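User: Hi! I'm working on a homework problem where we have to compare a predicted structure to a textbook description. Could you give me the structure for the chain below?
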Amino acid sequence: MSKRFFRKNLTKKSENKIYVERKKTTLALNESSISTISLLSDFEKEKILNARIEKYPTSDFITPFLTSLKEYCKVNSEQQILIANGIDELLYFLFIAINEKNAKCIVNVPTYPDYKNYGESVGLSFIEIPLIENFDSNVEYNIDIKRLVKKGKRKDVKAIIFTNPNNPTGTLFPLADIIYVMQKLKDKLIIIDEAYIEFCLDKTMIPLLNEFENLVILRTFSKGFLSPGLRLGYLVSNEHITSQLKKVFPVFPVSQISIEIGKLLLQNKDEISKVRQQIIDNRQDIYEKLREYREKGYISKVYKSNTNFLLFSFKAEERMKECYDFLLKNEVSVRNVSSKYLKNSLRVTATNDKETAIFLNTINEFFNGHNNE
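Assistant: Happy to help. Predicted structure tokens:
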């Protein structure tokens, strides 16, 4: 009976949720296994304890953090940056701002599924354009530029979303391809989700903000700054776009504690960068081992990655499930990311040396006991 209180297309929608079985070694959510707070000095930890939670986070508190972000991103003004509780919340506000009757967004699939989940929550609909597989090149997935531009010219399309690097494939799309789309679709908002950009920071599109007025970039402290539990994200664009988006953003967008920790993480960016390099090194170790399994025929594909995770696929769904269940049984949790556009695929997070060794030993045990059965 409660359905009568809500719009019809919402009552038909499924709940936004995620289920991951946490084990002793959880490598399913692209989290860090390293305590970020432990990287801070005692003096810095004291600052967190003294965060002014008895006060609203007014501009007096927010502006110093925005200044730190401005300097980190190398943009001209604090007014180009908006903060929120993670990229997920930024997406909600963006979708609210662009939504109107019959409005649509374009996504390249496979990609982060919650674009569609969150967009549909506010009444948007989506056009999905499959990426083109190309394992003979350095980029294993390419954007279908011709089809994307054609669809993007539709009057009901308001925005095109690129995840770069892409989740769950780990692909870094060629900059020239995205630039071409922006040039051809100047009246459409181009949203670049750079959640994983710290793992390939020289590929950010922030320097292009001065050239393209339709460009919006989303960033987070969850991946490259190892802090998904902080729920802190930010949007970077030109002041014309941010001034319009402020109309749908809350007055107090994040907590005092988030602001304080965010400032401290930026101050410790060099130390955090060293940890990221360890993750990249472990990612490479996992990739090399998975490539050996591919050459032996145990798996069908392993994808190059520019993130903190790796994607690998099996020829048969049953085989993939056997591997997934074996890992779970041995207290290792990875993510089953199989979908209409990505068959029989698992995703594993690269973390520290210990967890990398546990994963490699466990999956090696699986293949040694189950090879070519």
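For your comparison, note the following. The chain has twelve helices and 15 strands. The chain has a mean pLDDT of 95. Good luck with the assignment!
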